[in-house]
Amino acid sequence: MTFLKTALESSCLLRPWVSMAETSGIQIAEWIRSSRLFGGLYQAASRLGGASSSILWFGALFRFVLVVGVIGLFVLLSYSSTGVIGAVTMLLFAMVLVGWACFRPAVLSKITIVDVLVACFLGSAILSTAFSSFFHTSLIGLAKMLTFVAGYVVFRVVSENGSTTIGVLMGLLTFIGLSESVLGLYQYVNHIEPRATWTDPSLNPELQMSRIFGSLQPANPNLLAGFLIPCFAAAAGTSMLYFRRKTFWVSLAFIGIAALILVALVLTGSRGGFLAIGGMFVCMFGYLGHLIWHEKELSGFKWMKPAWLIILLVSLLTITGGVLSSEKLRTRVASIFAMREDSSISYRLNVYNSAFQMAKDNPIVGIGPGNSTFKLVYGLYMVPGYNALGSYSVPLEITVEQGLIGLSIFLSLLFVLILRTFLALDSPTLTLQQKLLAGALLTGIIGSFMYGIFDTIWYRPSVNLLFWFMVASLAKLTEPQNTNVFKGKL
């Protein structure tokens, strides 16, 4: 971490993102208050914010109902259709608007730099829609994106209840992931094959994996993999929380659940899921290692350092041994590097090339959001016989739909979240529980992004909403309590 701090402090290129990460909500509110353009808006919100100090953003009962609604939404993610999930999300967003109107919250005083970046990301989609050659179809894509941003707003409001509520929702994700994993193992044992999957015709049938798909619709193993990634991060984080509370048996139970979810994630046979596992393990062990070596609250537990090294070594040996012991799994992992020799990867390379040309011809604001717009434009660039509804890569998809403006904002959002989490590691105002939660959330975000580099399952509501839940929760946990909390920490 010393090298990283020195590099960030001395880097002129990275300094804007470091400054954004250090910016607190108080600073943003002060800037808005003193702005000629937004000053009137701030004063109006302040006059509306005359509610009792016992009310955070709205009444206690209303907050409780909203949390219950989010719990219900999480349960629906793995069983309901896209339309139902979208309708429930917008209903919860409407509840937030009613809460703001009835309880007169001072909204601007709660804004974080992450909220600003999310708003800018939405703004880039609106800009792309306005300049799109397919305006009406782009409006449909924009409406879908508005649903996801509405979900982010709901999660941000719920996160204001504090780390306890975030921890409860993480625990719920753990058990939802457990139920999907158990169902997946049942499918694996009984050889129930998914309907929505790709089979390489050149591969020996005896080397093809039996891929699980859970209860998510459509029955696609890749979709289940994208869903289980945040569930695994939640299970691992929850186990650390109970370990910190010295309830070791409960912690051990959650570690077992995390291991089961990990097994299910492997059995999806998703190559993007394999890459996500690697990214999550690097993030998780690196984060925990820093806490074990530098957190004052853990300084008296000398045994944790050798234990961390042993667990890291055992994990690496277990993963390596598991891959080497299964010829089917070994073949599946090796196919990641097969390039044109694997029909699935060859297909995606053709799509990548066409999507890159689309982005090259529409570099600034893109073609407009939504897979309907993508499909209309892709027909002009596609290799014959290689039709697609998306680019099979989230960063490339954002570039195609929203141009370099949208991509730069999205990558800035991720980078700022990473920097804020690093800053939180050394923050004296955050408890160890909050730091552990922040690490689990960042692990899930990193895993989801790693997966999204080579697939666009990320745009499915059951996956996308969980991503925005983690972003919203991390935005709250890593928010500086005053303008000087993070200064000098990097």
Please, could you describe this protein's structure?
With 490 residues, the chain is mainly alpha-helical. The protein is 70% helix and 0% strand. The chain has helices spanning 2-10, 15-22, 25-34, 39-48, 60-77, 82-103, 113-130, 135-159, 163-189, 221-244, 248-267, 271-294, 304-325, 327-334, 343-361, 371-378, 394-425, 432-452, 461-477. Helix 17 (394-425) packs antiparallel against helix 18 and helix 17 packs parallel to helix 19. The longest helix is centred in the C-terminal third of the chain and has 32 residues, at 394-425. Residues 50-58 and 482-490 have low confidence and may be disordered.
Radius of gyration: 23 Å
- Quaternary organization: single chain
Q: Biggest sheet: strands, sense, closure?
A: none
Number of strands: 0
Helix share of residues?
55-70%
Mean pLDDT, nearest integer?
A: 85
Order of helices and strands: HHHHHHHHHHHHHHHHHHH
What is the percentage of strand-forming residues? under 5%
Layout of secondary structure:
Elements: H1 2-10, H2 15-22, H3 25-34, H4 39-48, H5 60-77, H6 82-103, H7 113-130, H8 135-159, H9 163-189, H10 221-244, H11 248-267, H12 271-294, H13 304-325, H14 327-334, H15 343-361, H16 371-378, H17 394-425, H18 432-452, H19 461-477
Helix pairs in contact: 2-17, 3-4, 5-6, 5-9, 6-8, 7-8, 7-17, 8-19, 9-10, 9-11, 10-11, 10-12, 10-18, 10-19, 12-13, 12-18, 13-14, 15-17, 17-18, 17-19, 18-19
